[in-house]
Design goal:
Blueprint (H helix, E strand, L loop, with lengths): L1 E7 L4 H14 L3 E4 L11 E8 L6 E5 L4 E5 L4 H9 L3 E2 L20 H6 L7 H4 L2 H4 E8 L4 E5 L11 H5 L7 E9 L1 E2 L3 E8 L3 H12 L7 E5 L9 E8 L1 H16 L4 E2 L3 H13 L9 E5 L5 H8 L6 E4 L4 E4 L5 H10 L3 E6 L16 H14 L18
Length: 396
Amino acid sequence: MMDVADILRPRDAADLCAAVTDAAVAGTRLAIRGGGSKDGVGDRVRGVVRLDMTGFTGIVDYDPAELVLTVRAGTPLAEVEALVAGEGQMLAFEPFDHSPLFGRPRGAATIGGVVAAGVAGSQRVSSGSARDHLLGFTAVSGRGELLVAGARVVKNVTGYDLPKLAAGSWGRLFAMTELTLKVLPCPRVRATRRVEGLAPDEAVKVMAAAMGSQAEVAAAAHIPGAERGGRSVTALRIQGFGPSVTARCAMIETLLGRHGRVEAPDDATADALWAAVRDLAPLPQDGPLWRVNVPPSGAPIILAAIEPSGAQWLLDWAGGLVWTTFGGDAAALRAAAAQAGGHAKLVRSGPGYGEGVPVFHPATPGVAALEARIRRAFDPFGLFETGRFRDTYHAD
């Protein structure tokens, strides 16, 4: 959320360079914004100028045969997904729109926004994250300079692997104007196998065994019984060519069959299940929401920390991602995440909860100093330091 002093709507890179340069001269802070699907993440900021990137829309180049798409950053995610689906292809990291997490209709997310936030869905566990599919981009830095990175550029003069920095940067380094992404063919066949009634520890072990098997599981999730009004469900998705999927489903059925009756839901039921995991439909749609990343074996540590408070939760990424409505002591949750070898992010605050709690897991002093140096390299005047994420770096 932000209280905006003014709104700038650049239409091309020259406009954007001029806007950033003017802001540097005036000492104005700029809040980069696409469709606003993640406006609810972070603190309210005041007195900033909104840098509206929705003018950067449209497809620059798409070569389905080469599996490469170049698109302007403000293009709606839904438009990009529809385009590649029309060619039998997909964004394999399964980006999704955060709007439903904040009680708003789906459709606001932009491709630049999901990459800048490092958004990835259930298939991230098998296909990688946004940064693994970002080949290159163009952007304007806090110096008002145009950057071109990745794609056909073998090395860049800054010495940074810029696509890796861009994904997950949350608009704190530069404003991306154009992205080049790797796309992949859609699987010919998708199948889901599920078993009910597993306890969390058992479910994590089952998912780990499935991921380590030759079944090449694409996604694995667990929804506890309390969030379903009954028995828990542990689901595994297998995809690819028909005969291969059939053979791999047989492997999964053998594995799951040791733990209960294996169900093979039809496509519509399976799609609804994975959509529910994506949109966190089993969880309350208001109040605090945390995203805890841990090694899958660490998920039970997180559950032990949150369940005494009555927090609801579900597991994605084979247990490596815990979504929870925990409304207790943030420091205690983050201590549990650190103990489990991970970190916790506050995605959504709630009434009377979240004030004074940073969005991101506090970094160690060494990492924080490194992050500050990187931000200074791209944004020396602190134009993109709006206070939304309680950044500690300020320009000298």
